[in-house]
Design goal:
- The protein is an alpha/beta fold.
- The chain has a single domain, classed as 3-Layer(aba) Sandwich (Rossmann fold), CATH 3.40.50.
- The protein contains 4 helices and 6 strands; from the N terminus they run βαβαβαβαββ.
- A 6-stranded mixed β-sheet has the order 3-2-4-1-5-6, with helices on both faces.
- Helix 1 packs parallel to helix 2.
- The longest helix is centred in the first third of the chain and has 16 residues.
- It starts with a strand and ends in a 6-residue tail after the last strand.
Length: 164
Amino acid sequence: MKIIYLIRHAKSDRDNPNLADFDRILNQKGIADALLIGNQLKELHFNPALIVCSTAQRALQTLEIICNQTNCLQTNTIFDSFIYQCSINYLTFLTDSLPSKDNEVAIIGHNPGITLLSNYLINDIIDYIPTCGVVKIELEINDWKEIVQGIGSKKYFISPKTFI
């Protein structure tokens, strides 16, 4: 069995018109939300063997906060600039390329990709994964290359609003 966590970055500021979208940083709400979700993930025994993270600043900050909260700072991490504004085709290629030895993997990225990948993997529709939303999906497979549409089972879908 394989487990994948799909995590959307936390809320970022759009206040600076001179700052490229890729370089936007988390705002105070985003930081607070990432701390909250990190604490919840710790309670839910979040412990991926591998994390694949977008190189956009808001994704990197989300990664750092969640890893600090869950004590997974030593987790092997791959930084992938292509996750930013990627297609569902790229994300399915990415999941197909994950190392077979890693049974639990997290991907930290952006919408619409994270929502599209979630809906591809499960037989359930999530309309929209909000900022700092997390979907845990179990896959009855032995190798990531075995992924096909609808093979996954949603174990939980949490977001900061879940805990308000």
